[in-house]
């Protein structure tokens, strides 16, 4: 019964949609009603509006790392600046480490299923949450500046702190949080973006400390408080501020951190300090801690003495650091186009030495150079790459992978993998660290934009790099998958199924298509830079990006945003048929007479006419008989004139043979029929190969589909005979089926006849003319 109902329902909806189908869909209609309305905070041009505001939050943190128990203890002073026009009664903070508390909902958000054969870890993962009893933030105290406890409420990964009195627009509020947590083993689990990796062979750790201090949620004109729970997937929404951070840990540890170290003199040996000075003006990486020193350090007796590393960072949205006894450390400067220096640095264990000592810091500098070109000059004083077996990004510092084999050798693939991830993670300094989008909501705004610029930086590193993401053709397999496995790019981060494809690859491919195929490099690059300049150190949304790209380029891209970002249809343009036509040079068309007949009908009294009369309106022709003319007295439907005819003679003037030969002798007309099988409209790019072997690439803009989104017939005029024609020869549109991108050329032309112009001789019913009064 259910099946029959479903079937008949399906049939009915199919029938209904067939009934309402038009050749004219909405693919080219404007997005105004889809995008949020502009406000005084965010303009219709995509720029920050005249009343744009954003909150600010400064931190002073002191932390102690207990290596033996893998425990981190901290106190922080938070100063929140309310720049909003709103009065706030409470503040929301993020407790990301609570991701590792077993009792939180996020462990039950995903479905699961069984296989016939399963490994033990997969089975353990089904109930891993039961073992998560020792992790998460322990909040010891929250007090105001005077030491008075503040009321707070923890809701899983979020914490609300009630303000003792309302915080008015323009006011600041300072308070203290004391906390601690057990650091996770991020290799063995539970996994996290921060944690430690333990090296059994030499009994050492690499700590990567991130999402570690309770930190403010973003409060904005878009979301109010962005206090959507952290599930481990959707990343972060963070407020800019200044940081002063002191980390205390065993003296044999080397620290890599966001910001600039304030006390190297107290931390480094005289020799190391000298190398640090040398590195300031070096043209290649200088090792401040050498491989020998690092090897000695990791093998030596563990020190119980502590040291405190003191860092400052200005105008950053987050702060992260790493620490290990294993670290080699090298550095060299990069100067941006304004002459501002950034120290490019790398920290890595001996396992990564073969790749990292050669490539890491150079890749950091290369990233700053290329990203600065396409966005804004790198503004921070340092940029750091830390080898930590996996990739994750923070302001000025990121954690990457790239270890060699035990014998020190590595494959080309390993090397490129390491350089690729370094470019990607360092690139995140721009998206989202500086161009500070809301990652909790939109993964594509940082991962997609970053992956796109990453692909440009990789190509600029090595033009033969076989890129996995970025070029349009790399998205074809994803776009070919069943529609129930694809969601729009405009999908909340936590709801995405194929994360890498949706948030990284498809937006990056889309931006490449815009740059290479739709807008061209000049318009695209200028508009993209404009977006980066407008939103550097601010909080952009998707609409701000979409609007800026149009505003700064003068290209209507609503159809592209609609199709590529809001919908899931793939590109598949099919070349259905080719007709080859030439002008018949011998024969002329015969004159032909066309007769149109028109039967006169009694005028229909429409409702307006009836009401005009009923309203007592005075009509001029009735008041003055002299105004009554032919049109009111002549009633053809009552006469023998009821059928009116018009005679038209066509094909009157023809060419002489020589003239025709000169004008049309060489022309070949190719009439091509295309079907938009995929749904996503795209430019039609054709490569013509001519009889003499030369080629021509012709680009027809996507707007060719605007009057019929499914079928287009178009004629191309060529002076030479065409041997073959191919759609999308450079695979630049992500066309998912290339089998229908060409068709055999007809071997013989069909002929059409041509005349010069039709001297139109129209003869209308003579009675009509005769009855018009002068
Ligand atoms: Zn990323």
Could you describe the 3D structure shown?
The protein has 774 residues and is α+β, with helices and mostly antiparallel strands. The strands form eight sheets. A seven-stranded mixed beta sheet has the order 4-7-2-1-13-17-15, with no helix packed on it. Strands 16-19-20-21-23-22 form a six-stranded mixed beta sheet, sandwiched between helices. The model is unreliable at 1-18 and 769-774 (pLDDT under 50). It binds zinc ion (ZN). The site of zinc ion (ZN) has 4 residues, from helix 9.
* Low-pLDDT sequence parts: 1-18, 769-774
Q: Kindly provide the radius of gyration, computed on alpha-carbon positions and rounded to a whole number of angstroms.
A: 36 Å
Q: What is the number of strand segments?
A: 33
Spatial order of the strands forming the largest sheet? 4-7-2-1-13-17-15
- Report the total helices: 19
Strand content: 25-35%
User: What would you call the shape?
Assistant: elongated
- Hetero groups bound? zinc ion
Which structural class best describes the helix and strand composition?
A: alpha+beta
Helical amount = 25-40%
Mean of the pLDDT scores? 92
What is the first-to-last residue Cα distance? Answer: 78 Å
């Amino acid at each position: 019964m259910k099946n029959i109902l479903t079937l008949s329902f399906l049939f009915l909806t199919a029938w209904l949609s067939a009934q309402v189908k038009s050749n004219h869909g909405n693919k080219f209609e404007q997005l105004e009603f889809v995008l949020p309305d502009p406000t005084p905070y965010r303009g219709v041009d995509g720029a920050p509006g005249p009343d744009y505001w954003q909150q600010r939050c400064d931190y002073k943190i002191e932390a102690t790392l207990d290596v033996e128990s893998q425990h981190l203890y901290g106190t922080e002073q938070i100063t929140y600046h309310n720049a909003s026009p709103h009065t706030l009664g409470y503040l929301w903070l993020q407790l990301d480490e609570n991701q590792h508390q077993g009792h939180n909902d996020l462990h039950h958000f995903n479905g699961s299923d069984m296989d016939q054969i399963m490994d033990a870890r997969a089975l353990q993962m089904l109930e891993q949450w039961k073992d998560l009893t020792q992790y998460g933030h322990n909040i010891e105290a929250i007090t105001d500046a005077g030491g008075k406890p503040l009321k707070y409420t923890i809701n899983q990964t979020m914490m609300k702190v009630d303000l003792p009195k309302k915080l008015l627009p323009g006011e600041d509020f300072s308070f203290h949080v004391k906390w601690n947590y057990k650091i996770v083993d991020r290799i063995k689990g539970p996994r996290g973006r921060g944690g430690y990796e333990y090296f059994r062979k030499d009994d050492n750790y690499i700590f990567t400390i991130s999402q570690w201090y309770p930190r403010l949620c973003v409060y904005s004109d878009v979301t109010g408080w962005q206090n959507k729970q952290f599930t481990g997937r959707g990343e972060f929404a963070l407020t800019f501020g200044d940081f002063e951070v002191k980390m205390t840990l065993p003296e044999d540890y080397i620290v890599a951190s966001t910001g600039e170290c304030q006390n190297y003199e107290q931390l480094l040996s005289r020799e190391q300090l000298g190398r640090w000075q040398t590195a300031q003006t070096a043209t290649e990486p200088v090792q401040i801690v050498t491989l020998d020193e690092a090897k000695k350090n990791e093998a030596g007796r563990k020190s119980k003495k502590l040291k405190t590393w003191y860092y400052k960072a200005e105008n950053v949205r987050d702060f992260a650091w790493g620490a290990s006894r294993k670290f080699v450390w090298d550095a060299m400067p990069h100067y941006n186009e304004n002459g501002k220096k950034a120290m490019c640095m790398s920290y890595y264990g001996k396992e990564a030495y073969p790749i990292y000592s050669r490539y890491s810091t150079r890749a950091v500098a290369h990233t700053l150079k290329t990203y600065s070109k396409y966005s804004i000059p790198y503004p921070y004083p340092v940029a750091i790459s830390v080898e930590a077996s996996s990739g994750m990004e923070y302001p000025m510092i990121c954690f990457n992978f790239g270890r060699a084999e035990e014998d020190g050798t590595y494959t080309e693939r390993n090397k490129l993998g390491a350089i690729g991830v370094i470019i990607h993670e360092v690139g995140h300094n721009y998206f989202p660290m500086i161009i500070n989008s809301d990652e909790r909501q939109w993964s594509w705004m940082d991962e997609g934009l970053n992956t796109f610029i990453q692909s440009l930086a990789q190509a600029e590193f090595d033009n033969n790099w076989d890129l996995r993401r970025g070029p349009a053709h790399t998205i074809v397999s994803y776009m070919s998958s069943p529609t129930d496995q694809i969601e729009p790019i405009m999908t909340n981060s936590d709801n995405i199924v194929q994360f890498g494809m949706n948030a990284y690859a498809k937006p990056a491919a889309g931006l490449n298509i815009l740059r290479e195929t739709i807008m061209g490099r000049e318009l695209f690059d200028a508009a993209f830079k404009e977006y980066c300049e407008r939103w550097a150190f601010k909080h952009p949304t998707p609409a701000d990006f979409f609007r800026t790209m149009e505003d700064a380029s003068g290209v209507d891209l609503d159809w592209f945003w609609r199709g590529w970002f809001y919908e899931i249809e793939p590109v598949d343009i099919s070349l259905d048929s080719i007709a080859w036509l030439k002008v018949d040079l011998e024969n002329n068309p015969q004159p032909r007479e066309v007769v149109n007949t028109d039967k006169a009908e009694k005028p229909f009294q429409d409702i307006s006419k009836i009401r005009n009369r009923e309203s007592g309106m005075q009509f001029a022709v009735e008041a003055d008989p002299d105004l009554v003319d032919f049109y009111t007295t002549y009633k053809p439907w009552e006469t023998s004139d009821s059928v009116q005819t018009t005679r038209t003679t066509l094909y009157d003037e023809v060419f002489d043979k020589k003239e025709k030969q000169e004008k049309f002798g060489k022309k070949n007309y190719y009439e091509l029929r295309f079907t938009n099988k995929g749904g996503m409209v795209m430019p039609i790019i054709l490569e013509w190969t001519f009889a003499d072997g030369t080629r021509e690439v012709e680009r027809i803009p996507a707007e060719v589909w605007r009057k019929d989104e499914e079928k287009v017939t178009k004629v191309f005029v060529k002076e030479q005979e065409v041997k073959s024609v191919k759609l999308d020869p450079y695979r630049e549109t992500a066309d998912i089926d290339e089998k229908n991108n060409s068709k055999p050329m007809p071997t013989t032309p069909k002929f059409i006849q041509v005349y010069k112009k039709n001297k139109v001789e129209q003869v209308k019913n003579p009675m009509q003319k005769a009855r018009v009064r002068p």
